[in-house]
């Protein structure tokens, strides 16, 4: 792409508005003072958190009209990138996408970025990776993305960052129901409904989602049906008790690469989760106790290529992740807060090959691993304009042993408009059941991966707080990374990898009028060794506008230096520009019709080698909001 085209692209993005709900502009600016729980375990003004945190609000998520939250992250978070293969559906196993990397850590499959739902870990127990199709946007209040290691608070898998999906909680008595239905290119259809009810000390939330598509290639159909229920009670003003359960069934077909397509590579996945939280909040102390479980059942036909024989077996697996977490923060002295916490987890499952002819089972693995940890975090204000943050975690893993995880940060509040932060933190990831015990490359003697992150950040508000901008520089030194190498002619997992990541991230948002906003985010990443699905440059330019009953807008994303394979010559990279736009018209106070177009320029591009993504697509739909 030449310079003239890039400039033209940016001008179009700034000139056109992007979709938002009625209060989206106000919500965007309220994020200045919004609280976060991801970086602290307890609610804290985001300006006092030493880590780099992005908050994506409910109005922004609703305006995307996307069933999965994963695709929304690409547009709103610098330094974060996700892979995809079609209109809907990420899938798992061979050809699966939905891989998430932050600053080049994580990738495909995602094992170095931790996904949470209301603070509870959500990933596949034997393989250790997140399941992108299970993370839906219906009923979500906000998403908090912590860029950089958060292992002091969250342990393994949080070495690249954390994505916390926070459910919507109504503060006032209400009965609210949101419904959405839409359809578009390639036989795509989606529908969802969510109800939130609050009566004094009792509240509930229930949601159901359904999506399907034929896909833009042969043998690429996908459908998904999921539901969630959440019930909460507040017996006193100091206590909150909440329980929730989630169940998702999806069916996905992998067409294989364009040059070597698959036949009958089908996946049937059932995922579920449940949790119980007991939270307390007093004048000088706050904390919580939670128990959680997530589980899955996978049935995969690995398929075959044209000219080959069909597989005679299915790959089957069951997995479970169980845990108990407790933490308590105390503020018994001026300007200080001490948080103490403990985590216990049991992770694992069973995998086997099941003969198609008679159901005979060949067990591949039947293993569980345990971990226990304790941590402490001290936050202290000094001279009213400096906040010191110190943390330490001691984590014991049943196979990888004991690890000590430190963190130290300093925030300097220069004035009411400017903040300066420095941070050093360690991240780690314990080996998974797959890496320890499954397939030919297994190695029961693996150690944990680790990295050190060094970061400097600056943020500022200008023009009567209408302009917010900031940037940060980081250096990551990764060591002991698990790689598959050939030993005596056989593949074997070993702790042999190391890498250095350096980068810059920047964001800016400007409120032009009470009903229009423009902004951008940009990230640059350099890695000493080539990394899959981690672009060198990523720029997203957006705008938002509301005028009367109309809402509309656009965003344009430029991606450069994206590696979709790592070959000996490391030569192939993807460069592309994506232009998305939408418009919404509220023909009733409670109802609106919308039109959304993606990849309007019909660019040819891939985020996974051999899986070209669809060209221009459209989605039309109707949304209804009752009881607000």
Describe it for me?
- This protein has 628 residues and is mainly beta.
- It contains six helices and 32 strands.
- The strands form four sheets. The chain has a 22-stranded antiparallel barrel. The protein has a five-stranded mixed beta sheet with strand order 3-9-10-7-8.
- Strand 16 (262-281) and strand 17 form a beta hairpin.
Overall 3D shape: globular
**Residues in helices, as a percent range:** under 10%
Look at the helices and sheets and give the structural class: mainly beta
State the low-pLDDT regions, or none: 1-33
Largest sheet report: 22 strands, antiparallel, barrel
- Total number of helical segments? 6
Mean of residue pLDDT values: 88
Number of strands: 32
What is the CA-based Rg, rounded?
24 Å
Instruction: Quote the beta fraction.
Output: over 45%
Separation of the first and last Cα atoms:
47 Å
Q: Which helices and strands appear, and what pairs or packs with what?
A:
Elements: H1 3-15, H2 24-30, E1 35-36, E2 44-45, E3 52-57, H3 58-64, H4 70-76, E4 80-82, E5 100-102, E6 105-107, E7 113-117, E8 120-121, E9 140-147, H5 151-154, E10 161-167, E11 174-184, E12 188-199, E13 202-213, E14 222-236, E15 239-253, E16 262-281, E17 285-305, E18 313-330, E19 336-355, E20 361-382, E21 386-397, E22 401-413, E23 418-429, H6 433-437, E24 449-462, E25 467-487, E26 490-513, E27 516-527, E28 537-547, E29 550-562, E30 574-588, E31 591-598, E32 617-626
Parallel strand pairs: 7-10
Antiparallel strand pairs: 1-2, 3-9, 4-5, 5-6, 7-8, 9-10, 11-12, 11-32, 12-13, 13-14, 14-15, 15-16, 16-17, 17-18, 18-19, 19-20, 20-21, 21-22, 22-23, 23-24, 24-25, 25-26, 26-27, 27-28, 28-29, 29-30, 30-31, 31-32
């Amino acid at each position: 792409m030449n310079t003239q085209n890039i400039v033209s692209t940016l001008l179009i993005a700034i000139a056109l508005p992007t979709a938002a709900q009625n209060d989206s502009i106000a919500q965007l600016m309220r994020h200045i003072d919004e609280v976060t729980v991801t970086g602290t375990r307890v609610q804290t003004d985001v300006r006092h958190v030493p880590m780099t945190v992005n908050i994506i609000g409910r109005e922004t998520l609703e305006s995307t009209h996307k069933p999965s939250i994963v695709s929304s992250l690409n547009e709103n978070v610098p330094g974060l990138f996700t892979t995809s293969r079609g209109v809907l559906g990420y899938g798992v196993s061979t050809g699966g996408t939905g891989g998430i990397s932050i600053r080049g850590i994580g990738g495909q499959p995602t094992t170095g970025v931790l996904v949470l739902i209301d603070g509870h870990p959500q990933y596949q127990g034997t393989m250790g990776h997140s399941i992108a199709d299970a993370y839906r946007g219906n009923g979500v209040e906000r998403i908090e993305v912590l860029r950089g290691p958060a292992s002091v608070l969250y342990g393994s898998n949080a070495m690249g960052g954390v994505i916390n999906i926070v459910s919507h909680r109504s503060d006032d008595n209400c009965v609210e129901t949101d419904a959405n239905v839409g359809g578009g290119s390639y036989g795509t259809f989606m529908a969802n409904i969510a109800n939130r009810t609050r009566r004094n000390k009792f509240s509930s939330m229930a949601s159901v989602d359904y999506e399907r598509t034929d896909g833009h290639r042969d043998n690429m159909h996908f459908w998904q049906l999921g539901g969630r229920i959440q019930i909460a009670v507040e017996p006193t003003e100091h206590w909150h008790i909440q329980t929730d359960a989630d169940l998702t069934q999806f069916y996905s077909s992998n067409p294989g690469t364009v040059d070597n397509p698959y036949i009958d590579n089908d996946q049937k996945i059932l995922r579920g989760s449940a949790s119980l939280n007991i939270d307390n909040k007093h004048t000088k102390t706050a904390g919580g106790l939670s128990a959680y479980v997530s589980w899955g059942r996978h049935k995969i036909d690995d398929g075959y290529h044209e000219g080959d024989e069909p597989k005679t077996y299915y790959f089957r697996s069951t997995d479970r992740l169980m845990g108990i977490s407790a933490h308590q923060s105390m503020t018994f002295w001026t300007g200080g807060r001490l948080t103490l916490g403990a985590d216990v987890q049991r992770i694992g499952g069973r995998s086997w090959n099941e003969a198609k002819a008679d159901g005979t089972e060949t067990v591949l693995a039947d293993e569980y691993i345990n971990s226990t940890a304790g941590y402490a975090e001290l936050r202290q204000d000094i001279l009213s304009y400096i906040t010191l943050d110190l943390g330490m975690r001691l984590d014991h893993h049943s196979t990888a042993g004991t690890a000590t995880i430190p963190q130290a940060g300093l925030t300097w509040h220069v004035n009411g408009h400017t903040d300066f932060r420095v941070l050093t933190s360690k991240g780690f990831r314990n080996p998974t059941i797959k890496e320890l015990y499954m397939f030919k490359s297994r190695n029961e003697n693996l150690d944990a991966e680790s990295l050190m992150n060094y970061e400097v950040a600056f943020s500022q508000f200008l023009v009567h707080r209408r302009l917010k901008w900031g940037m940060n520089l980081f250096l990551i030194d990764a060591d002991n990374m698990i790689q598959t190498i050939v030993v005596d002619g056989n593949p074997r997992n070993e702790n042999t990898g190391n890498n250095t990541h350096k980068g810059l991230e920047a964001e800016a948002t400007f409120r032009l009028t009470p009903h229009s906003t423009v902004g951008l985010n940009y990230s640059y990443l350099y890695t000493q060794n080539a990394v899959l699905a981690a672009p060198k440059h990523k720029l997203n330019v957006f705008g938002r506008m509301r005028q009367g009953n109309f809402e509309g807008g656009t965003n344009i994303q430029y991606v450069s230096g994206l590696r979709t394979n790592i070959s000996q010559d490391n030569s192939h990279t993807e460069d592309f520009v994506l232009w998305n736009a939408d418009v919404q018209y509220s023909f009733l106070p409670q109802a609106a019709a919308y039109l959304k177009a993606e990849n309007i320029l019909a660019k040819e591009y891939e985020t996974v080698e051999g899986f070209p993504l669809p060209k221009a697509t459209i989605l039309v739909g109707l949304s209804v909001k009752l009881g607000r």
